[in-house]
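To: structure desk
From: M.T.
Subject: fold request, one chain
Message: Could you run this one when you get a chance? Sequence is below, nothing fancy, just the single chain.
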Amino acid sequence: MDKTLIKGEICVGYFVTVDSGVNLYVEDINPGGNKTILFLHGWPLSHRQFEYQFNVLATMGYRCIGVDWRGFGKSDKPIDGYTFNRLADDIRVIIGSLQLNNVTLVGHSTGGAIAIRYMSRHNGAGVSKHVLVDAAAPTGFTTETANKFLKETLNDRPKMMQDVTDGFFFQYITKPFSDWFLQMGLEAASWSTAAIIITLRDETLHEDLPKINVPTLIIHGTHDKVIPFAQAQELNQKIKNSQLVPFHYSGHGAFWEERDKFNQLLTQFVG
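Reply: Done. Structure tokens follow.
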């Protein structure tokens, strides 16, 4: 584990080897915090999507850990390993390597799907609470949507990312914010971007839901055009000890669109 200190231990950036020749980037904000929240970003973004959580929660005393999955952000970008099982196994290695326990696992969109698979496949090892944000579960993309994104990714990836950005938010975003968001998505490798589209098209998580056995908070924008709100209701029905909180002024980006409400809700849930 290669550690690089940033700002004198307020934030630590390092890489964790999760597989042969594959190192994932981890950003560890306020590593001395009393309670740990582990964030899994959405497709095709990176841990940086949660900066509006890191800004607030770390100053409140929480340890916030952002992980770039393989193929995305600053992490290594192998040609394979983009199934939910492998992505969940990567998270298992990180939690073990960092010796984390009693963690709140937060997953947005595809990160929510990875979190669900982690909870079922690894029996929630090290995790005491679970938060799903506009989760791409129990199904991800329709075949039609996936094939459209796949074609664009392989032929005009910047246009695909612009389409993703344009449909992501319900609330108004500025041009500089849109540019920042788009560039975050383009940090990913083209092959990993495409591979996750196929995973979201072909894999489902129905059988994983009954295996989740920790308190689960489900946050979902009622105006979400990416993953319909009805899927959040299905998660709520099938995950025991779960609660669903609709975000009425959000699309697929509740973590930013209603960030004050989001952060307050998260701190209440984590405790």
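Reply (cont.): Strands lie at 2-6, 11-19, 22-29, 35-40, 62-67, 103-108, 127-133, 216-221, 242-247. Let me know if you need anything else for the meeting.
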